[in-house]
Amino acid sequence: MLEARNLTKKFDSLTALDQLNLTVETGDVVCLLGANGAGKTTTINLFLGFLEPSSGSAIVDGLVVADAPLETKKHLAYIPEQVALYPQLSGVENLDYFLRLSGIRKSRSQLISILSEAGLDEEAAGRRASSYSKGMRQKVGIAIALAKDAKALLLDEPLSGLDPSAANALCGSLRQLRDEGRAILMATHDVFRAKEIGTRIGMMKAGKLVNTLTAASLDASEIERIYLAHMHDDNLDDAATGAAA
Amino acid sequence: MISTVVGKEIKTYLRSGVFLSLAVAMVALAVAAAALSTQRIATFERERIAAEAVDRDVWDGQGERNPHAAAHFARYAFKPVPRLAAFDPGVTDHAGIALWMEAHYQNPAVFRRAEDLGDAGRMANLSPAWILQYAAPLFIFLILFAAVAGEREAGTLRQMAMTGLRPEAVFTAKLLGAGAGLAIILAPALIVSTLMTSNVQAEPVLPDGGARIVGLSIIYIAYAAAIGAFAVGVSAFFEEKRNALIALVGFWAVSFMMVPRLAGSIAATAYPQPDASSLSKELADAASAARGDEAYQEEIRQAVLTEYGVETVEELPINYGAYSLQKSEEYAHPLFEAIYARLDALHDGQERILKSASMVSPAMAVQKLSAGLAGVDRIHQQAFTAAAEIHRRETVKILNDDLKLHGGGQQNYAAGEILWREIKDFTYTPPRYKDIASNYAFSAFVFAFYLIGSFFFAAWSVKRAHQRIAS
Prior knowledge:
Helix content of chain A is 39%, strand content 26%. By secondary structure, chain A is α/β, with parallel strands linked by helices. Chain A folds into two domains: 2-75 and 151-241, Rossmann fold (3-Layer(aba) Sandwich); 85-149. In chain A, strands 6-7-8-3-9-10 form a six-stranded mixed β-sheet, sandwiched between helices. Chain A has a four-stranded antiparallel β-sheet with strand order 2-1-4-5. By secondary structure, chain B is mostly helical. The radius of gyration of chain B is 29 Å and the shape is elongated. Chain A binds chain B through residues 45, 48, 50-51, 69-70, 73-74, 76-78, 80, 82-86, 88-89, 93, 97-98, 100-103, 128, and chain B through 1, 4-5, 8, 11-12, 15-16, 154-156, 158-166, 469-470.
C-alpha cells in the first residue's frame, strides 16, 4: 500500500532522508522511531505530497505521489500530533467540512455515528472544538480517516502529550483500523506504544533507516535497548542490526 | 469545494466575537458619519436656498439707482451642494460656497465652512466616504489578517491540503470567503448610511447623478476587493498571523494615515498658497488696470467716435462713461484669467504631489475618484467659479449697456425694478462626468494597478503558502 523506493530528500546541503526503502502492506503497522531530525516527519510529508523528493519515489497504492498528488491523497488519512480543527465549529461540523472538501457528503446522523465509532460521544460531537482536549481532537482525526475509508494512515507523533487513557483509546482505534486491513505508518518517540500496536518497527537516524524489527519477536525493553544503542553510539549499529528480524 | 470553504468562513465569522464587535463598530461609525454628513449638507442647502431668496429680494428691492452702482452693489452666486456630498463632502467644507459677482472684480469664492468650525472642523471630516476610504481598510485588515496565516498556524491549511484542494481553489475560496466576511461587515453599514444620506434635503444638482452613483458603487466595491485581496495576500505571505497583523496595521498607519498627511504638507510647502492680502491687491490692480492705460483709453475713445461718426464724446448718442466702464471690464478679463490661471497652476502642482503620493496610498487614489464622482472636488469647484464669472460678466454688461443706451448725458440716470428683474438668478449645472473624466485618468490608472496588483499578489502568496505547507 505504501512504498518508499530509494526515497531521498535534501534541503540544500542537508540530507533529511537518505535512500529510504520501506514497504507498508495492508494490515501492517510500521512505527518509525528516531530522534528529532531523524527523517520521520520528512518521510510522512513525502507520502502526503507536501514535499517533492530529491530522488527516488513515494508510492501509494501503486501510484507515485509526485506524479499523482491529488489521486494519492484520496487513499490517505493524516493525523498529526495536534489535529487541527476550527475552534468555532463543533466536532460534527469539522468532520463534515473536511469530508466535503474531500468530496464526501454524509448526513448529520452518519457523522455522529462515525464520531461515535472513533470514540467521541454525541454530546461532545455537538460541542465547539475550542473546548476539545488533545485526545478528543485525535478522535475527530480518526473519524476523518474512517469516513474517508482511507486505505492508509499516516500518523506523526499522535501520542505525544496524550494522557494514558487517551493514548490507550487511540491505540485501540489504530489496532481496529489495522485489523480492518488499513496500512499504517506512524512516527513516534514512544518505544512501548510502538511495540504495542506496531507490526514492524523502523529505527531512523540522520535520515537513514538504520534498522527494522518485527515487533512481535522482541519485548519492549529489548527494542528500547537497541533503539538507545542506535541513538547514542554509532559503533553499536552493526551489533544492534544483528538482533533484527 | 469552494462553496464549502466560503460557507465555513461565513459560519466562523458569525461565531467570532471579534468579528461581530467589528461589525457593530462599523455600523456605529457609519451611522455617526451619515448623521453628521446628512445634517451638514442639509444645513448647507437650507442656508443656500434662504440666502438666494434674500439676495433676490434685496436686489429687486434696492430701489432706483444708477445701473453701474447696482453692478457694484451686485449679487451673489451660491454654489448648490449635490446630494452625493452627504456621502462624500470632498472639498465642500474647504472651498468657498458663495461668490460676490461685483463689477470690475472677479472675486474668489468665499465663506469656507471649515473656517467657521474651529475644533469641531475635525469631526466635520467624518463622512461615509471617509469611513470607507480610511477606517474600513483597518477593519478589513483586522478581519483578514489571519485568513491564511491563522489556518497555517493552526494546521488547518495542511488539513485542507490533505483533502486534495488545489492552491487555485484555496485562493478563490479564501478570497470569496473574505468577500463574504466583508459583505457581512460592510453591507449593514453601507445600507444604513445610504438610506440616511439619500434622504438628505438637497436638490439633485448633478445632471448625471444616477451614473455617478453607479460609478461610486463600482469604485468602492472594487476598493474593498483590492484591500481584501491584499490582506489575504499578506496573511498568506507570513508564517505567523501575529506578523501578518503587524505588517497590515503598519501598512495602514503609513499608507492610510501618514502618507496623505505628509503629502498634503509637502504639497502646501512646495506650492504655497498666496496670502489673501496680496491676492486681493493683485485683483484690485487688475480691476483698475484699464484706467492707468492711457493708450487703451484713447484707442476705445477713437473706436467709439468712429463707430458713431462723431468728433467728440459729447456728441455721442450713448453714455460714454458706461461704454468706458464696460471696456475697462473687458480689459480686465484676461488679467483676471491670468491671476486665476496662476492659482490653478499652483493647485495643479499641489495635486501632482498628491497624485504621486497616491501611488503608495490607495486611499488617496480612491479619494480623488470618489470626490470627482460625488461632484465635490476642485474640478467641480473650478466649473462653479467659471460659471459664476460668466454670469457676472453677463450681468455687468446688461447693467452697463442699460446705462450706455439710456443714460445719455444724464449724470443722475437711475434704473428701477424692471431692469433688476431682467437680471436672472445664477443657476449652475455641474459638468457631466464623461466630459471631465480625463482629469481622473491617473487616479483611475493607479487604482486599477492596485486592484490588479492585489489579486496577483494574493494569488502568488496563497500558492506560495500552499507549497510551503510542509514546513
